[in-house]
């Protein structure tokens, strides 16, 4: 059985990890698990996609040959003793090494209507 590195997250940091791991000679199986329906992409270019300057497919990020990307597959729990991920679909997956690349909360600008009266998103004026 080959060594498996599970990466919780399939965004920019996860893609970069997988790419650099391969570039430095890593030979374990690498699996990225992401909640989104598509693989890693450059989120910085999203505004340019919306304006038509970039094609959505042009935002895809390389993640290294031999890396598997599991889309629509959120990691919802960890069993650190058994070294298993619990996935949103009810299945589990084993790992030998674990990388957490879950991203960060965005910094939201102070725009009127961005937050509702309770401080959460979805204010009446949003949009």
From TrEMBL:
Keyword terms: FAD, Flavoprotein
Region (Disordered): 106-127
InterPro entries: FAD-bd_OxRdtase, FAD/NAD-bd_sf, FAD/NAD-binding_dom
Domain FAD/NAD(P)-binding: 4-114
Skewed-composition ranges (Basic and acidic residues): 115-127
Cofactor(s) listed: FAD
PANTHER family (alphabetical): NITRITE REDUCTASE [NAD(P)H], PYRIDINE NUCLEOTIDE-DISULFIDE OXIDOREDUCTASE DOMAIN-CONTAINING
Protein name: FAD-dependent oxidoreductase
């Amino acid at each position: 059985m080959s060594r498996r590195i599970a990466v919780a997250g399939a965004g920019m940091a996860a893609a970069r990890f997988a790419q650099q791991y391969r570039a430095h000679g890593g030979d374990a199986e690498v699996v990225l698990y992401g909640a989104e329906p598509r693989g890693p992409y450059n989120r910085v270019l999203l505004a340019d996609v919306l304006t038509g300057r970039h094609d959505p497919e042009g935002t895809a990020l390389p993640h290294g040959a031999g890396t598997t990307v599991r889309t629509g597959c959120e990691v919802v729990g960890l069993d650190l003793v058994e070294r298993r991920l619990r996935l949103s679909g009810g299945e589990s997956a084993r790992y030998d090494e674990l990388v957490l690349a879950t991203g960060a909360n965005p910094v939201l600008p102070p725009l009127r209507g961005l937050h509702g009266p309770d401080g959460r998103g979805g204010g009446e004026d949003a949009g």
